[in-house]
């Protein structure tokens, strides 16, 4: 072989080997850096400690480009430094302590004594060891600018610092770690109505609340909140830290009181909550017991607990749904009518009358309905425009009686906005009214048993927004006068009709996939409601169930309202309160009621302010502008219309012109086709043309 060639081949071989070695080196280095784990002589051990090992690459890929919703707490250490050795057991304990929360916070460590880890240590200006820094989740804007130094080496203080940091930067997906400012802040939280609510009252420097919230974050169906001592002493809560449960009927009960020892209180509260959830679940399973069958209020309590299960149609009447139904029906469905007169006005009066008598909501709302009733009764004219109706409703809003202008679906919330909501709340309202009428008729000469059903029919006929629904309902309720002779019958009549609708709509596109329309009540809610073979309803049991189901949810009739009720209804009201187990709890609920009321009053005040603004001089100027603009637009419109009119004066309309164009195009195409057929073809086949000519010649 030519020596020159040989040399060049050797050179290229050597170069190849060198390149291979280089690649291998890089691969080895990369593997060394990316393979996670502490070395044998390190301060931490991958096998026994919960500290997450980091190096330059994993620091970049896992801390800097962290998964969302994760807080990193990193110790920058030097394996040779004595302080670090001394501190290592503390860091290990911390990591072990937080090992249940690794989906929220990671305790990690990086050895800055290793040259390959130089970059991150330099980048974060680590000048002494150990240095501990906390990195907010990626959702935080300018996240790396908000990295915080832990200034202590004491374990309890580090824990507190981390908890405070977690509270400050908690992403939306985490449970709430901040204390509630006001009790009503609860209702702004997500999925509140589908959960059992627990609340921890504690001192400002206490960490128990946060720890319990974090410990129970993955337990479904419960929510734990915290409130500070200074916010709740006025409500008569005197022991701190203490754990309370909010019952479905809006009462609260004390579950535990701590002794200010962080770990034992934490354990106690977590345990008590878990036990309580277990008991509630066990109760819901024993719903078919004999005792419950005889005691509708027991069924009600249990159904309240069951209603936490969002997958089934087990939700019971809820104050929030009922008030939202009222708001929408009065301020939208009735107000949308141009004129309310004749039969329609009669229907409205009947509707308001039964609401005034049987709506089981809060005192101000009930008083508001009484005011509406008075307004309608004293109406001087035989008709009312929709606008007048709205103005009247607005003017009736006052501090002592009002209807909140808010829609907040609770049990009626669908899996997406197009499902459930208003129609669901109207069914709930209607059932609640029939049950309310039944409750008030107890122990007295029953009033008109059909009164509520006729009012519902009137509402469906004249106001319900869905035309098809009202048509069907009117068909279904044709025989109501003869079919219903008692309040019990009325409750069952509506139940049967509702089930007919459920049957018809099962599989319909309006059916919420998460709340399929089943025959109600399903076995899971009321196992005793059907015969043992599951074929027939036991209507007595169904009735008892419905009474429990639709008279609960913390809805009670306040004593101050009695004077507005008809005749001697005091007994009936008492029995209603007793039947829902609230007769002696009205006082206890008072502060809660007040809180709710204050919130609504704020809304009323805002409404007034808005109204005042509407009437202010600025508004007048704005209106002038608007009307000027409107007249300009109107003028332009008139000019356009005039032009159209001129055109039509010639007898040629736009349609005529379009037809002309179409015919013109069609005739052009036909001429072109004919031209192609006769002329072009002759040019292409001159012989055939000549032949034809000679033959013909
Ligand atoms: C009077 C009326 C008639 C309607 N007619 C039609 C119609 O013809 N066509 C149409 O498309 N939509 C109709 N709708 C709407 C439809 O019935 C539902 O309200 C809507 O589809 C929402 O359904 P939902 O799953 O929330 O449960 P809904 O049927 O609204 O029920 C609400 C809640 O009531 C309880 N419940 C269910 N069944 C019963 C029962 N038999 N007795 C007592 N409580 C029960 C359950 O807790 C349920 O969650 C009507 C609504 C009303 C108020």
Automatic annotation (TrEMBL):
InterPro entries linked: ERV/ALR_sulphydryl_oxid_sf, ERV/ALR_sulphydryl_oxidase, QSOX_FAD-bd_dom, QSOX_FAD-bd_sf, QSOX_Trx1, Sulfhydryl_oxidase, Thioredoxin-like_sf, Thioredoxin_CS
Domain Thioredoxin per the UniProt entry, residue ranges: 41-168
TM region(s), chain numbering: 649-675
Keyword terms of this UniProt record: Disulfide bond, FAD, Flavoprotein, Glycoprotein, Membrane, Oxidoreductase, Signal, Transmembrane, Transmembrane helix
Cofactor(s) needed for function: FAD
The keyword Signal belongs to this UniProt entry's keyword annotation: yes
GO biological process: protein folding
Catalytic activity, as annotated: 2 R'C(R)SH + O2 = R'C(R)S-S(R)CR' + H2O2
Any single Pfam family the record assigns to this protein: QSOX_Trx1
A single GO molecular function term of this UniProt record: protein disulfide isomerase activity
PANTHER family, A to Z: QUIESCIN Q6-RELATED SULFHYDRYL OXIDASE, SULFHYDRYL OXIDASE
Protein function: Catalyzes the oxidation of sulfhydryl groups in peptide and protein thiols to disulfides with the reduction of oxygen to hydrogen peroxide.
Name of the protein described by the UniProt record: Sulfhydryl oxidase
Species of the source: Elysia chlorotica (Eastern emerald elysia)
């Amino acid at each position: 072989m030519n020596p020159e060639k040989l040399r060049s081949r050797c050179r290229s071989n050597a170069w190849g080997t060198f390149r291979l070695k280089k690649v291998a080196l890089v691969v080895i280095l990369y593997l060394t850096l990316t393979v996670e784990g502490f070395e044998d002589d390190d301060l931490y051990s991958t096998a026994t400690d919960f500290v997450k090992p980091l190096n330059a690459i994993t620091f970049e890929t896992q801390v800097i480009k962290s998964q969302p919703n994760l807080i990193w707490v990193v110790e920058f250490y030097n394996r040779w430094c004595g302080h670090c050795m001394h501190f290592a057991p503390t860091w290990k304990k911390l990591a072990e302590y937080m090992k249940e929360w690794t989906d929220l916070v990671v305790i990690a460590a990086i050895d800055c004594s290793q040259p390959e880890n130089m970059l991150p240590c330099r980048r974060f200006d680590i000048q002494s060891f150990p240095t501990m820094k906390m990195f907010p989740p990626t959702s935080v804007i300018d996240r790396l600018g908000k990295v915080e130094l832990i200034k202590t080496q004491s374990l309890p203080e580090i824990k507190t610092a981390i908890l405070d940091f977690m509270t400050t930067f908690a992403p939306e997906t985490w449970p709430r770690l901040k204390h509630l400012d006001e009790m009503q802040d609860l209702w702004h939280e997500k999925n509140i109505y589908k959960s059992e609510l627990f609340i921890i009252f504690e001192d400002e420097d206490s960490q128990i609340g946060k720890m319990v919230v974090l410990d129970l974050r993955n337990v479904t169906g419960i929510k734990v909140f915290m409130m500070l001592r200074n916010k709740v002493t006025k409500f008569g809560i005197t022991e701190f830290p203490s754990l309370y449960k909010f019952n479905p009927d809006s009462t609260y009960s004390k579950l535990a009181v701590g002794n200010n020892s962080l770990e034992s209180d934490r354990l106690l509260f977590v345990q008590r909550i878990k036990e309580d959830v277990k008991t509630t679940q066990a109760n819901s399973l024993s719903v078919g017991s004999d005792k419950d069958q005889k005691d509708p209020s027991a069924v009600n309590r249990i159904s309240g607990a069951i209603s936490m299960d969002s997958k089934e149609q087990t939700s019971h009447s809820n104050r929030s749904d009922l008030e939202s139904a009222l708001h929408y029906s009065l301020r939208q469905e009735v107000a949308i009518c141009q004129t309310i007169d004749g039969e329609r006005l009669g229907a409205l009066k009947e509707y308001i009358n039964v609401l005034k008598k049987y709506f089981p909501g809060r005192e101000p709302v009930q008083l508001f309905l009484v005011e509406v009733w008075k307004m309608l009764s004293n109406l001087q004219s035989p008709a009312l425009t929709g606008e007048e109706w709205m103005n009247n409703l607005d003017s009736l809003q006052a501090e002592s009686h009002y209807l909140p202008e808010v829609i907040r679906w609770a049990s009626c919330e669908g899996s997406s906005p197009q499902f459930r909501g208003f129609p669901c709340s109207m069914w709930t309202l209607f059932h609640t009214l029939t049950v309310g009428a039944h409750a008030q008729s107890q122990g007295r000469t029953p009033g008109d048993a059909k009164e509520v059903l006729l009012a519902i029919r009137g509402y469906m006929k004249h106001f319900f927004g869905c035309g098809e629904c009202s048509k069907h309902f009117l068909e279904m309720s044709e025989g109501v006068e003869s079919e219903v002779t008692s309040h019990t019958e009325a409750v069952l009549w509506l139940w049967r009709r509702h089930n007919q609708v459920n049957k018809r709509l099962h599989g319909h596109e309006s059916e919420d996939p998460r709340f399929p329309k089943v025959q109600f009540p399903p076995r899971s809610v009321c196992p005793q409601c059907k015969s043992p073979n599951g074929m027939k309803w036991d209507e007595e049991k169904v009735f008892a169930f419905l009474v429990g189901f639709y008279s609960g949810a913390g809805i009670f009739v306040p004593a101050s309202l009695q004077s507005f009720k008809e005749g001697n209804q005091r007994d009936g009201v008492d029995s209603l309160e007793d039947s829902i187990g609230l007769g002696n709890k009205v006082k206890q609920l008072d502060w809660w009621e007040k809180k709710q009321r204050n919130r609504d009053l704020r809304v009323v005040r805002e409404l007034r302010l808005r109204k005042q603004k509407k009437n202010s001089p600025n508004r007048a100027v704005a209106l002038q502008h608007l009307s000027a603009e409107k007249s300009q637009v109107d003028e332009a419109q008139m000019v356009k219309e005039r032009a159209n009119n001129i055109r039509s004066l010639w007898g040629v309309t736009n349609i005529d012109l379009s037809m002309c164009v179409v015919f013109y195009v069609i005739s052009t195409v036909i001429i072109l086709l004919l031209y192609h057929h006769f002329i072009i073809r002759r040019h292409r086949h001159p012989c055939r043309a000549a032949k034809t000519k000679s033959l013909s010649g």
